[in-house]
C-alpha cells in the first residue's frame, strides 16, 4: 500500500511502488482526466503537478510521489471555480478532440507560476506537449490571455 | 439514450455498403405504427432529430462522431437554424447504431470521414429541424384553434400574430410529438440564415478543460476488467504458442487468452497489471511469408510500376506521350511518399460485455454502424441482441472509421469471460505496430514545354498501394481504385485545376502486406505534393513565375484560381518578401472544396527550416462556423507538416520499426507557423472542411524551400535529408 496526497486528499493505493504514477491516479484514485499517450514521457498528455511543478506522470514511479502534493486537472481549479488557464481555454475555444488538453493545461499552469508573463520564446521552450489536432495557435493565444488575467 | 416503442414487426433490411463495407443483411425489429417515441427521461421526440423538454431545452441528435472537428456544433447549428429554437438551450446526444438500425436507419449514415459530416447530411438534418418547427407551431395553433399560418416561431417561442398570444416549444412538445409530420417542408434561403455562418461557440469545450470529458479508455463499468494485447508484429502472422503459466500468478492477472489467430491478451484487475504481465509473457509467433519484406523491397516493387506497361487510366485527353516526345523541352521527376501512422493521441480501445443473449460495446468510433457490424460479426449474435455506445474520441483522423479491429478483439476477449465487461486498451507501441497506414506511393511526372514555355503535355504515373482494394474492394471500378487519383480527376469533388492539352494520369497498382487506410486527407497528401511541386519544376524549366505559369493553365477553373489568387494577394506574391524569407504556392480541390496556400519560410544552415507563416484560402461553398473552419485549417497544417518533416513508418523484417513518438515525432508549439485563413464561401455547394486544406501546406513549404535553397526534395519525410523544422 502506498499513501498519496492527490488534490489535497489522502489516498491509499494498492500498487507495486514501481507502478507509474499515471496508473495509480487513473486506476486506483479513479481520476481519469489525466491521460495516457505514450508511456515514455514524450507527449505530455499525463502531465500533473508535484509540489507545483509539471511532471509527466507516465514515467514516474508512484514511490517518487509519496509525501508530495499531487495535483491533477480535477484539482486545478479551487472550489468549483476554473483556474485562469482553464478560463482562457474556454474563452479561446482551445480544445478540439481535447484528449491532450488536460496535460497541456497543467503544463501551462506550471509555466505561468514560474513565468507569470511568458514571452513567445518562453512558451516555445516551456511547452513541449504533443497535440495531434494542432491547437497550438489557440494554445499560444490562451496562454497570453491567461497571463493577463 | 432513447427507448423505442414496444410494438414491432420483423421486416428485414440491408445496411448499405457505405456503412459497413460488405452489405450485411440483418433480421431486425422495426417500430410499428406512429406511436410517440420517448427519450429515457420520458420526454417525447418531436422527430428523430429533435427532443424538446418541458423547460425548453432542445436536444439535437447527431449521428456523426465528434472527434475534435466541431461536427456536433456545426450539425446542431444546421438543425437549430430551421427549428428556430433558443440556441443557448441546445444540447446534443448520439443515437445508438442499434436504435438506428431498428428504426430503418432514420439517422442516415453514421460514417464520419471524408469531410462529409456536414456536406452530405446538411439537407436532411435541416429538414429535420424544419419539420419539428412546423409540428410545434401546428400544436400551438391547434391549442389556440387558429390556423398555423397565423403563427410564427422564433427563439423557441411561438406567437399567434393576430392575437399576440405566445407559448413556448416546451409547453407544446407533448402535443407536437403526436402529430403526423408534414409531407413537404421548405428550407430557408441561405440569405435568411442567422445561425449558419456564425462562429457560435462549440458545445463541447467545458468538459474538455476540466478533465470531466469521458473518452473511450476512461470508461468505468461495474465489475470491469482490463485487457492489454499483443498482435503478431508481422502483418499476416499468427500466434504459434504462449506460456500463460508464466504470468497467471502475477498480481491482478485473471485470464490469459488467445484473440483470434494472431493475438494474445492478458486480462487483469487493472490495465497496468495486465500490461506488466503481457510484457512478461513469452509468445512465439508464426511470422509467415511476410517476415522478409522491408521498405527497400517495397520501394523496388513500386519503382518497377513507374515504367510498367499496364496501368489504370483515370484522366486522359489528347496524346500526352506524343506531345512530350515532340516538345521543345522535357522535364521529368520521380517522387516518393512513405507509410504514415495516424497516431491519434488516444490509442485504440474498446470495451465489450458479452453474454449468450447480448453483446454491448462502448467505443470511440468514427462510424457507429461499422462498429456495430464488427460487434455482430465477432459476437455471432443478431442485430437485436447487440448494441454499440459511441464514446468521445481522442482523435480519429481516419483510423477509427472503416477499421474496428480493436472492437473485434474486445468482443473476442469478452466472449471468453461471459458476463464480465472488459476494457481493451492498446499501448502506444501496439498502436504504432498495428496501424492502417497512409498508403505508400511513388510517382513519375513528365512534362513537355513548347518553345514559348507553354505546357503542351503532362503525364503522371502513380505507382503504389490501393486503399479500396484492401478495405472496400466492392467499390473498385473495373479493378481501378478511383480514390488513388484524388485531386487529379477530370471533374467532381477532387477535380484537377489545370487544363493541359495532352494529359495522361494513370496508376500502376502495387499492393503490399502493410495494410493501408484512410489517413486525414487520404490520397491528396501525396498527389498535391506531386502535382504542385512539379508545377513549380515546370515553371522553373520554362523560366516563368510559378504563379503566372499556373494562371495560364487555370482559365477554365475559376474557383481553383480564385483561392490561389486570394493567397497570392494576401501574402504579397510578386512583391519583395522580408529579408531571408522565401515563398511557395500550392492549390488543389478536394472533398468538394477549393484550397490554396502560400507558405513563407526561412532556412538557416541549409537545413533548419522555420515556417514563418502560411496564408490559406478555402472556398467551401457554404461556411457553417468560420471559427471552427479556421481551427481545422491550422490543425490540418500541424498534421500535414508533421508528416512532411518527421513522419515515416519503415518496414524491416515484415514489421513496422517505429514504436512511439520518440521514433515517430509530431510538431510542437515552437514549430507552429502563423496561419492566416481566408474563408471565402462562394455559395451554391457544400464542400468539406476537415481534410482539404491539409494537402496544400506541404507542397507550398517544399516550393518555398526550393526558392530558398535551390534544392528540390522529392522523397519524404524531410528528416531523411537532414532537414529539420525549427
Protein topology:
The complex is a heterodimer of chains A (about 150) and B (about 725).
Chain A: E1 2-6, E2 9-13, H1 21-28, E3 47-50, E4 53-56, E5 69-71, H2 84-91, H3 101-114, H4 120-126, H5 136-148
Parallel strand pairs in A: 1-5
Antiparallel strand pairs in A: 1-2, 3-4, 3-5
Helix pairs in contact in A: 2-5
Chain B: E1 2-3, E2 8-9, E3 12-15, H1 17-20, E4 24-27, E5 30-31, E6 38-39, E7 45-47, E8 50-52, E9 58-61, H2 71-83, E10 90-93, H3 97-102, H4 122-144, E11 151-154, E12 157-160, E13 165-168, H5 169-177, H6 206-210, E14 225-231, E15 238-242, E16 253-259, E17 263-268, H7 271-280, E18 283-286, H8 295-305, E19 312-317, H9 320-325, E20 329-337, E21 349-355, E22 358-363, H10 368-379, E23 386-390, H11 405-415, E24 422-425, H12 428-433, E25 441-449, E26 455-464, H13 467-471, E27 503-509, H14 524-542, H15 546-553, H16 558-571, E28 582-590, E29 593-604, E30 608-619, H17 626-646, E31 651-652, E32 655-656, E33 674-679, H18 694-709, E34 724-725
Parallel strand pairs in B: 9-10, 14-24, 22-23, 26-27, 30-33, 30-34
Antiparallel strand pairs in B: 1-6, 2-5, 3-4, 7-8, 8-9, 11-12, 12-13, 14-17, 15-18, 16-17, 19-27, 20-25, 21-22, 21-24, 25-26, 28-29, 29-30, 31-32
Helix pairs in contact in B: 2-4, 4-5, 10-11, 14-18, 17-18
